[in-house]
């Protein structure tokens, strides 16, 4: 799908799978208590092969949020460590966001400008 967006906008996209999960947390939509953004962050790593490639001009994340947005916030925080000088844009579709009132707090925790 990402490539279609690029073609439609006449932009050559560099699509990479930069992040990998360690598999130690349950999926948010199956857990009785979804993992916190901090716990999700701790379970994320940047793929060293992808990290070794040239830095992107821009990082654009898309997440289909099922609950709180913890995955997106954790991903933005992890990527900020690796690419501190590149803009990181997060886009998410909230299907159900009971913690939406906490969004400013979560963004502050993720240190997203």
Strand order of the largest sheet: 1-2
H/E series: HEHEHEHEH
Please summarize the sheet with the most strands.
2 strands, antiparallel
Number of helices: 5
| Portion in helices | 25-40%
Contiguous low-pLDDT stretches (5 residues minimum) are: 109-113
Strand tally: 4
Instruction: Provide the structure class.
Output: alpha+beta
Strand content: 15-25%
Shape: globular
Gyration radius (Cα, Å) is 15 Å
Keyword list:
113 residues; alpha+beta; two-stranded antiparallel ribbon; 35% helix; disordered C terminus; Phosphoribosyltransferase
Description:
- It is a single chain.
- The protein is of the alpha+beta class and 113 residues long.
- The protein has one domain (15-110).
- It is 35% helix and 18% strand.
- The strands form 2 sheets. A two-stranded antiparallel ribbon has the order 1-2. Strands 3-4 form a two-stranded parallel sheet.
- Helix 4 (70-82) links the parallel strand 3 (59-65) and strand 4.
- This is Phosphoribosyltransferase.
């Amino acid at each position: 799908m990402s490539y279609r967006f690029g073609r439609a906008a006449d932009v050559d996209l560099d699509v990479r799978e930069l992040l990998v999960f360690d598999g130690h947390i349950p999926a948010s939509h199956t857990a009785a208590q979804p993992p916190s953004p901090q716990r999700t962050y701790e379970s994320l790593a940047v793929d060293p092969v992808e990290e070794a490639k040239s830095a992107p001009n821009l990082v654009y994340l898309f997440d289909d949020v099922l609950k709180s947005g913890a995955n997106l916030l954790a991903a933005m925080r992890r990527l900020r460590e690796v690419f501190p000088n590149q803009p990181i844009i997060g886009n998410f579709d909230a299907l159900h966001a009971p913690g939406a009132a906490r969004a400013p707090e979560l963004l502050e925790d993720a240190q997203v400008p």
